[in-house]
Each structure stands twice: as C-alpha cells, then as structure tokens.
Design brief:
By secondary structure, the chain is an all-alpha fold. It has five helices and no strands. Keywords: Bacterial flagellum biogenesis, Cell projection, Chaperone, Cilium, Cytoplasm, Flagellum.
Length: about 130
C-alpha cells in the first residue's frame, strides 16, 4: 500500500472518531480549525502558482465558513445577525482572494477567523 494513502486513511479514521464523539462546541472548533487549515493551504498553493489546488482549498474554506454561518440560529437569537454578516463578509473576501490571487485577503480572513475562534475557545473554557 502507498504510505501516503495509508496516512490519509488513518487521518480520516481519526477525524471521524473525533467528530462522532465531539460535543457541539468542539464540532464548531473543528470547523474553524479546518477553515484555517484550508486558508493556509490555499495561500501555499497561491504562492506556488498552483491554481487548481488554490481554487479547491478556497472553495473548501468558503464551504466551511458557509457551514458555520448556516449553524447560526438567527430566529431564536437575533443578536447573531452581526456574526452572520461577518461570515458573509469572510465568504465574499475568500471569493475575491481567489479571483484576484491576493494573499493579503486570505490573511485578512484568517485573522478574522482566528479572532472568532479565540472567542469561541474562551466560551468553551468557561463552560468546563
């Protein structure tokens, strides 16, 4: 068996085990971590001028931020409208970064997502 394929399968099993046992709070953390990873991968692909992978990774980052956005319960908590707007802005900037090959836009979105994640992580620390 190809060693890289074996490693990917092992990682996939590990992440599946984590998600099946994770709390809703931890699942959101994992999404944010995944979004940051995809942005970093997109930035690397952009630097290498690897356009196909840049597009794939930015598309995945947009999907992850979209998933975070869809998880907001705006009907029961209207205070989340600002968070919804922030996620919408992040998705828009990721699409612009893709179209313009702009690493600074990726950095901007990563910075915003890091800030949101730090706040989310702090909530988890208080709950424990």
């Amino acid at each position: 068996m190809n060693p890289m394929l074996a490693l990917r399968q092992y990682q996939k099993i590990g992440s599946q085990a984590q998600t099946s046992e994770a709390s809703p709070h931890r699942l959101v953390q994992m999404l944010m971590e995944g979004g940051l990873d995809r942005i970093a991968q997109a930035k690397g692909a952009m630097a290498r001028k690897d356009i196909p992978n840049k597009c794939v990774f930015i598309g995945k980052a947009i999907g992850i931020v979209g998933g975070l956005r869809e998880g907001l319960d705006l009907e029961n908590d209207p205070t989340l409208v600002r968070q919804d707007s922030l996620y919408h802005y992040m998705m828009k900037r990721l699409a612009e970064a893709n179209a313009k090959n702009d690493e600074k836009m990726l950095d901007e979105v990563a910075g915003l997502l890091i800030t949101v994640k730090e706040g989310w992580d702090a909530i988890g620390a208080v709950q424990q």
